[in-house]
Amino acid sequence: MSNRSFFSLALLLIAVLLVLSSVYIVKETDRAVLLRFGKVEIADVPKGLQFKVPMVDVVRKFDSRVQTLDAPPEQFLNIEKKPLNVDSFAKWRIRDVQKFYTATNGSLDVANRLLAQRVNEGLRNEFGRRTLHEVVSGQRDEMMALLTQQLNEIAGTEMGIDVVDVRIKRIELPAQVSDSVFNRMRTERERQAADYRAKGKEAAEGIRAEADRQKIVIEAEAYRTAERNRGEGDAQAAATYADAYNRDPEFYAFMRSLQAYKETFANKGDTLVVDPDSEFFKYLKSAQGKK
Fold first, then answer.
1. What's the pTM value of the predicted model, to 2 decimals?
2. pLDDT tens, position by position, 215-255
3. Residue 276 burial (CB < 10 Å; 0-12/13-18/19+)?
4. Which letter, b or e, does each residue of 60-70 get, where b requires 16 or more Cβ atoms within 10 Å of its Cβ?
5. Cα gap 282→289, rounded to integer Å
6. End-to-end alpha-carbon separation of the chain, Å?
7. Are 88 and 169 a contacting pair, CB within 8 Å?
8. How far apart are CA 29 and CA 61, in angstroms?
9. What H or E segment, with its residue span, contains residue 24?
């Protein structure tokens, strides 16, 4: 190979390298800035195939998708001065790529560290204005929405990012506080249980006394009704007997004698010693009851 051919090949290779180094692609999931001599020349490079000046321009690309900040748990004091271990996370994405590059030098680690500071500061302020019940269940959603809005404004101004959401994963009491809280809760539950048992015994005694009273009243009314019915029945029987006797006294006496015979001789083993001339046998001797 001659020197001329070698020189031509070298020029061709250099041209190819220059062309390749001057072409770059910005994907749909990327945000990019173009730097010329270290300064931002194009703040937000359009998507697609782009060109730059080799050796002069530098392109910095960043992921435009939603990022997750999973910060380590922090301890905050609520309005009751109780320490709480709070584990939270935040979702964010780039809004202003130039401001993001300027504030963080394009580092996701720097962005997460700065955002974590803002999140912890916001949580500390919100927890300091609320009780344990409010941050756990009462006002938790309201607090998260308010904190997300505040952080979105601050982070957008300072770092050029949008805070999509802030959430609390877990709220725990420190170990030294958990025991005292548990003991206080157990004491309170035992007091409530004793109160419920006392009220239950009181209600049971009242129900039992009322049942005994109703029993006595019902038995008295039943006895009174039974006696009245028995008296009325006896009166009716006496009236019936008297009417029957008045209609035919002889027949009534005859029926009474037959009943007496029946009851007297019902058992064959009975022995009866009676004077034959006694009134007891008057209807056995004569149909008219004559001796």
1. 0.55
2. 999 999 999 999 899 888 888 888 887 777 777 777 777 77
3. exposed
4. ebbebeebebe
5. 5
6. 180
7. yes
8. 10
9. strand 23-26
Contacts 24+ apart (CB under 8 A), 195-204: none
Strand, helix or coil for residue 236:
helix
Tens-place pLDDT, residues 277-289 = 666 666 666 655 4
* Interatomic CA distance for residues 256 and 262, integer angstroms: 10
User: Going by C-beta distance under 8 Å and a sequence separation of 6 or more, which residues neighbour residue 173?
Assistant: 82, 83, 84, 85, 181
Q: Token pair for residue 55?
A: 């050796």
Report d(CA 46, CA 64) in Å as an integer.
Answer: 13
CB atoms within 10 A of CB 97: 24
Hey, how many other C-beta atoms are within 10 angstroms of the C-beta on 171? Answer: 18
User: Can you give the C-alpha Rg of the chain in angstroms?
Assistant: 55
DSSP 8-state class, residue 74 = E
Among 39, 38, 40, 36, residue whose Cα is nearest residue 53: 36
Question: Contact, 31 vs 97, CB < 8 A?
Answer: yes
In this structure, what token pair is assigned to residue 261?
Answer: 């015979």
